[in-house]
C-alpha cells in the first residue's frame, strides 16, 4: 500500500488512539477491581469487624447491666435495667444474624460455638436477673431498718419504763436486764444474717436468734408474773411491741435466707464470668480473623494497584515515545521533500534547467517532486529548442508533438514566423538580384516600404505593452505563490502544535491516574481507620460514620478522575482529526504553487524571447530605415552595388536552415522586361508578415552566446 501523508497520519493517530484506549481499559479495569475490592471490604470484611466489635460491646454492656441490677436497690431502676437488657439481647440477636450472613464456613463453626456458649450465658443471665429483681437482701435490710427497728425501739422504750418501775424489786430488775440483753442479741444476729453471704454463717446467726428468742420468752413470762398495777400495764405494751417486732423479724430472716442478691452476684462472678469471658474470646477470634483478612485484602489491593499502575505507565511511555517518533519522521520527511522542491524551484527560477531532483518519497510530496521533474524537463526541452533556433536551425520538424502550454505555443509561432521571414528575405534577395536594373523605378515603392516599417515600429510598441502585462502577471503569480507557501508552512506548524497538544493530553491522563492512586491509598487507610474507630466508639459509632463519609468522597473523586480521562481521550481524538485536516490542505496548496511556478517560468521565457526579438527588431528597423533612405537617394547610381548587397544578403540569410520544402516555395521568376511583375513582387514583399522589416544579419552581428534573460 502506498504510504501517503494522509495514510501516515491516519496510521499514527490510530496507534495513538489505540494506546489511549489501552490506557483507558487498564484504568477502567483497575478502578473496577478496586471498586469491587472496596465493596468487598466494606460489605464483608469491615462489616464483620464492625459487627464483631458491636457484639463484643453488647456482651460488655449486658454484663455491666447485670452488675447494675444486682447492686441496685430501686425497683423502678431495676425494671429499667431489665428492659435495657431485653433490648440489648434483641439487638445482639439481629447482629448475630447479620454476622452469620458474611462469615465463611470456618468462621461459622466458631460462631456456632459462640452461640452455644452465649445461650448458656443468657440462661444464667436470666436466672441472675430474676434473683436480682427479687432483691431479698436489700429488702431484708430495709425491713430491718424501718418497721422492725421502729417496733424494736418501741419495745425497748417500754422495757426501760418497766425497769424504772421495778427498781425497788431487784429480782424483777435482774430479769428485765436479762430480757434486754436477749433482745440485743436477737437484733445483732438479725443484722449479721442480713450482711453475711454464706449459708453456714447465716445458720449460725439464726441459731443464736432462736436461742435468744426462747430466753426472751422465758424472761418475759417470769417478769410478767412479778409485775402488778401500772408496771404490769407498761409491760403489756412492751409485749405487744416486742411481738410485732418478732413477726417482722421472721420476715427479715426469711428474706435474708433467700439471699437472692448474693446468689445473683455469685452466678455473675463465677460461671457467668467464665461464660462471659469465653464469649468475648470467641468473638475476638472472629474479629481477629476479619482483621487479618482486612490486612490480606490490603496487600492484594496494593499488589493489584502496583501491577495496573506499572502497565499504565509503560503504555503511556510507549505511546509518548511512539508519538514523538512518528511526529519526527513525518515532519522530517515533509521538511526534506519540501527543501528539495524549493531547491529545484530556485534553480529553475535562476534559469538552471539542467538541475536534477531526487525523489525520495512515494506520497503526495513525491508526486509534487515528480511534477517538478516533469516541469524541469519541459523547460529544458523548450530551452534547447530556443538554442537551436538561436544557432540558425529552422529545420525543426518534430517539436509540434511536444507543444504544450503558452511557452511551446510561443516557440512554435516564433519558428514559423522566422521561417516565413527568412524565406521571404531569401526570395526578396533573389528578386532584388534579378531586379537590380529596375531599382530606380522602385524608389517610390521603397519609400512606401519605409512607411510600412514605421507601422512595424508601432507593432513593436504594442508587443512591448503586451510584454509589460506579462511581467505584471508574473509579479502577481509570485505574490500568490508566496502567500500559498506561507499558508502551507502555517498549516504544517499548526499540525505540529496539535501533535504537541495530544502529547500534553496524554500527560494530563497520567496526572489524573496519579490522583486515582492517591485516592486508592487513602481509601485503604480510611477503611482501616473506620474499623478501628468503630471498635472504639461504642454503641454510637460516630467515628465510623465520619470515616464512611470520607470513603464516599474519595470514591466520588475517583469517578470524577475517570470521567476526566474519558474527556481527555475524546479531546485527543478531535485534535488528531483537526491535525489531519490541516495537513490535507498542504497538498492542493503545493500543487497550486507548482502551477504558478510553471506559469512564472513560461512567462519569463516568453519575456526573454520577446525582449530579444524587440531588441533586434528595433536595431534592424533603424538600420533598414537608414538603408532605405540611402538607397532611395543612391538607387539610380548604385544598381551594381545593390546587386552586390543582394548577393551578400543571400549569403547572410543562408545562416538559417529552412529545409527543402521552403527553399523555393516563395521564389520569384522575374525577367528584366517584367517591370510590372517586379513592382507587384516588391509590393508583395512590402505586405509580408513583418511589414517590410529588413534584418541586417551581418557576420559581426551579436551571437546567441550573448543571450540574456529578461
UniProtKB/TrEMBL annotation:
Listed A to Z, the keywords are: Chemotaxis, Membrane, Transducer, Transmembrane, Transmembrane helix
Give start-end positions of Low complexity composition bias. 443-466
All residue ranges annotated as the HAMP domain in the record: 332-384
Query: Sorted alphabetically, which PROSITE patterns does this protein's record hold?
Result: CHEMOTAXIS_TRANSDUC_2 (PS50111), HAMP (PS50885)
Source species, domain of life = Bacteria
Q: Which CDD domains match?
A: HAMP
Molecular function terms, GO-annotated: transmembrane signaling receptor activity
GO annotations of cellular component type: plasma membrane
Name listed for the protein in its UniProt record: Methyl-accepting chemotaxis protein
- What family is this protein classified in? Belongs to the methyl-accepting chemotaxis (MCP) protein family.
Amino acid at each position: 500500500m502506498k504510504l501517503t501523508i494522509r495514510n501516515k497520519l491516519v496510521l499514527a493517530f490510530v496507534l495513538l488512539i489505540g494506546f489511549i484506549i489501552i490506557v483507558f481499559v487498564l484504568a477502567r479495569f483497575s478502578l473496577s477491581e478496586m471498586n469491587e475490592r472496596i465493596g468487598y471490604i466494606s460489605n464483608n470484611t469491615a462489616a464483620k469487624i464492625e459487627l464483631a466489635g458491636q457484639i463484643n460491646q453488647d456482651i460488655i454492656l449486658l454484663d455491666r447491666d447485670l452488675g447494675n441490677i444486682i447492686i441496685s436497690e430501686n425497683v423502678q431502676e431495676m425494671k429499667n435495667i431489665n428492659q435495657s437488657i431485653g433490648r440489648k439481647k434483641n439487638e445482639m440477636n439481629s447482629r448475630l444474624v447479620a454476622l452469620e450472613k458474611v462469615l465463611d464456613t470456618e468462621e461459622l463453626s466458631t460462631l456456632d460455638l459462640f452461640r452455644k456458649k452465649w445461650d448458656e450465658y443468657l440462661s444464667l443471665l436470666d436466672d441472675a436477673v430474676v434473683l436480682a429483681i427479687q432483691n431479698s437482701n436489700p429488702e431484708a435490710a430495709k425491713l430491718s431498718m424501718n418497721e422492725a427497728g421502729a417496733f424494736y425501739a418501741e419495745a425497748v422504750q417500754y422495757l426501760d419504763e418497766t425497769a424504772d418501775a421495778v427498781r425497788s424489786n431487784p429480782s424483777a430488775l435482774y430479769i428485765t436486764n436479762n430480757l434486754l440483753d436477749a433482745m440485743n442479741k436477737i437484733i445483732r444476729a438479725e443484722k449479721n444474717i442480713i450482711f453475711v453471704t454464706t449459708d453456714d454463717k447465716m445458720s449460725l446467726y439464726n441459731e443464736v436468734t432462736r436461742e435468744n428468742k426462747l430466753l426472751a420468752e422465758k424472761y418475759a413470762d417470769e417478769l410478767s408474773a412479778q409485775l402488778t398495777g401500772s408496771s404490769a400495764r407498761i409491760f403489756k405494751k412492751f409485749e405487744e411491741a416486742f411481738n410485732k417486732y418478732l413477726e417482722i423479724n421472721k420476715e427479715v430472716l426469711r428474706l435474708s435466707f433467700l439471699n437472692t442478691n448474693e446468689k445473683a452476684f455469685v452466678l455473675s462472678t463465677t460461671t457467668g464470668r467464665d461464660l462471659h469471658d469465653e464469649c468475648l474470646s470467641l468473638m475476638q477470634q472472629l474479629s481477629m480473623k476479619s482483621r487479618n483478612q482486612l490486612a490480606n485484602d490490603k496487600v492484594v489491593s496494593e499488589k493489584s494497584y502496583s501491577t495496573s499502575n506499572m502497565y499504565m505507565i509503560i503504555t503511556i511511555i510507549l505511546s509518548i515515545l511512539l508519538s514523538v517518533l512518528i511526529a519526527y519522521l513525518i515532519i522530517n520527511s515533509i521538511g526534506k521533500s519540501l527543501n528539495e522542491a524549493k531547491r529545484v524551484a530556485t534553480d529553475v527560477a535562476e534559469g538552471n534547467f539542467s538541475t536534477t531532483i531526487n525523489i525520495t518519497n512515494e506520497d503526495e510530496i513525491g508526486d509534487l517532486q515528480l511534477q517538478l521533474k516533469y516541469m524541469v524537463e519541459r523547460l529544458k526541452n523548450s530551452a534547447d529548442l530556443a538554442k537551436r533556433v538561436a544557432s540558425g536551425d529552422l529545420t525543426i520538424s518534430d517539436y509540434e508533438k511536444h507543444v504544450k502550454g503558452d511557452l511551446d505555443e510561443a516557440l512554435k509561432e516564433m519558428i514559423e514566423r522566422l521561417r516565413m521571414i527568412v524565406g521571404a528575405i531569401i526570395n526578396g534577395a533573389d528578386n532584388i538580384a534579378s531586379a537590380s536594373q529596375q531599382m530606380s523605378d522602385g524608389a517610390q515603392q521603397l519609400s512606401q516600404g519605409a512607411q510600412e516599417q514605421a507601422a512595424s515600429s508601432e507593432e513593436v510598441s504594442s508587443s512591448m505593452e503586451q510584454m509589460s502585462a506579462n511581467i505584471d502577471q508574473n509579479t502577481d503569480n509570485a505574490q500568490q505563490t508566496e502567500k500559498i507557501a506561507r499558508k502551507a508552512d502555517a498549516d504544517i506548524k499548526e499540525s505540529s502544535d496539535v501533535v504537541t497538544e495530544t502529547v500534553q493530553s496524554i500527560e494530563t491522563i497520567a496526572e489524573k491516574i496519579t490522583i486515582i492512586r492517591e485516592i486508592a491509598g487513602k481509601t485503604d487507610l480510611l477503611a482501616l481507620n473506620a474499623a478501628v474507630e468503630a471498635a472504639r466508639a461504642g454503641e454510637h459509632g460516630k467515628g465510623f460514620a465520619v470515616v464512611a463519609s470520607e470513603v464516599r468522597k474519595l470514591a466520588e473523586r475517583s469517578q470524577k478522575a475517570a470521567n476526566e480521562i474519558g474527556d481527555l481521550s475524546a479531546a485527543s481524538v478531535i485534535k488528531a482529526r483537526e491535525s489531519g485536516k490541516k495537513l490535507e490542505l498542504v497538498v492542493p496548496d503545493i500543487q497550486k504553487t507548482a502551477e504558478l511556478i510553471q506559469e512564472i517560468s513560461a512567462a519569463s521565457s516568453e519575456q526573454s524571447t520577446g525582449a530579444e526579438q524587440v531588441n533586434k527588431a528595433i536595431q534592424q528597423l533603424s538600420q533598414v530605415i537608414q538603408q532605405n533612405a540611402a538607397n532611395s537617394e543612391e538607387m539610380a547610381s548604385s544598381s551594381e552595388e545593390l546587386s552586390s548587397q543582394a548577393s551578400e544578403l543571400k549569403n547572410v540569410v543562408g545562416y538559417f536552415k529552412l529545409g527543402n520544402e521552403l527553399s523555393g516555395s516563395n521564389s520569384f521568376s522575374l525577367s528584366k522586361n517584367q517591370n510590372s511583375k517586379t513592382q507587384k513582387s516588391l509590393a508583395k514583399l512590402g505586405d509580408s508578415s513583418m511589414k517590410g522589416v529588413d534584418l541586417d544579419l551581418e557576420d559581426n552581428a551579436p551571437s546567441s552566446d550573448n543571450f540574456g534573460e529578461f
